Amino acid sequence: MANPEKTTEKPPSALRIRAHSVASGIAAALVWPRLQLALKAALAAGIAFAIAPFMPGSAAEYPYYAPLGALVAMYENVAGSMRQGLQALVGLAIGVGLAFMLFSLGSPSPWTVAVVMGLGVVLAGLPKIGSGRDWIPTAALLVLLVGGHNPDSFSFGYLFQMAVGVTVGIVVNLLVFPPLHFRAAALSIVELRQALAQQLWDMGKALKESWPPEHVDWSRRSESLAAHARSVRLAVEKADASRRANPRRRLHPRDMNLDYRNLRDLERLTFHVQDVTQVLSDVIWAEDTPFVIPDEYAAPLGDAMSAVGDVLRATEEDNPDRQTELARTADAAINELTARLAAEQHSKDAPSAVESILLSLHRMLRVATPGRPEAKPATAPAD
Questions:
Q1: Tens digit of each residue's pLDDT (9 = 90 or more) over 117-164
Q2: Chain centroid to CA 28
């Protein structure tokens, strides 16, 4: 049972307002790239369809495949457009080759269609063709059924116009504001760090309330924090991918190594915050947990927890002196309580959970404090 004394914590309203602003910024950063992609896809499809009738030979008879190729190549980043477009063309070529091989069996029939589909699905399992695997059975079936009357002409026109569309899609994505997803990554890092700070503050407040505490939302956030950390990793990886083959990266440089280091630190912090959340929840509500938090340690432990939350929050501020001061305050609170535990004797019938929580807080502080000895730079994947 914790100390029933209630104390007043600093109101989190400013943080909540800041968190709402960050969340709104992330939403905007995610919505605009999708709208931008849609506009570029429309532009690429229109250009491809406009030039398709001027293609040589029989290709001009199949202009509707050019905008399809443009859509196939339109991806959220330039490198992805190149990769996806080339993989689609490889898959198409394999599918066309499969259809020509089966034309030797005669005119299209239920049997030949079945054979084409079966072999197409088998060939779709080939390694390193990515999204092109989906086009193998599709291309084979189109050549077999649509181009059956003139497979040579259809196959040439189909492949040629798809290649034209893919080329247009890649060029449009390369030249028309190729996206850089740096802002969404930066905002997601800020939002997760704030969420972790808020979790520590809420748990610190719970330690100073009469148990069971009135506020229990913090006890249900463990999985959401883990999901949040996963989304931050996806955002950073997406930002990293967006700069590859992107000419705008020189105009908008960003230290992705720093982002990956921040990501690694946040994942470690999330793990430790989850651990403290589980320990504290078990101490309060689990009937089969033998551990306790003695009343005389509840308030100072809550202060130490809130102090570490302050350090996390201050990381977003451009004030190194304040960060250092808060880190010293948190470190002093942890060390003082650790020394107090070491000097006092405790009941063997009820082991204290304070040591476990203090160890996690100490590790959080080492991760969050600039200049920590274990902060070896993490490197971003090579381009």
A1: 888 888 888 888 888 888 998 888 888 878 767 778 888 999 999 999
A2: 16
Structure tokens at 321: 């002196």
Gyration radius from the chain CA atoms: 30
Cβ contacts of 315 within 8 Å, gap of 6 or more: 193, 323, 368
Tell me the angle at which helices 151-175 and 135-145 cross, rounded to the nearest 10 degrees: 140
Candidates 103, 98, 132; CA nearest to 118 is 98
- Residue 330 token pair: 């948190």
What is the 3 state secondary structure string of 95-158? HHHHHHHHHHHCCCCHHHHHHHHHHHHHHCCCCCCHHHHHHHHHHHHHHHHCCCCCHHHHHHHH
- 363: which 2 tokens? 């590790």
Q: What is the band of 23 on the pLDDT scale with cuts at 50, 70, 90?
A: low
* CA–CA distance, 140 with 347 (Å, rounded to integer): 76
Distances (CA, A) of 297 to 64, 158, 331, 339, 353: 74, 75, 16, 12, 10
For residues 199 and 182, what is the distance between their CA atoms, to the nearest angstrom? 26
Measure the CA–CA gap between 349 and 373, rounded to whole angstroms: 38
User: By percentage, how much of the chain surpasses pLDDT 90?
Assistant: 38
Burial of 377 (0-12, 13-18, 19+ CB in 10 A): exposed
- CA atoms of 286 and 291, how far apart (whole Å): 10
In 3D, which of 69, 247, 259 has the Cα closest to residue 157?
69
Q: What share of the chain is helix, strand, coil (3-state, %, to 5)?
A: 75, 0, 25
Residues whose CB is less than 8 angstroms from the CB of residue 62 and which lie 6 or more positions away in sequence, other chains included: 52, 154, 157, 158, 161
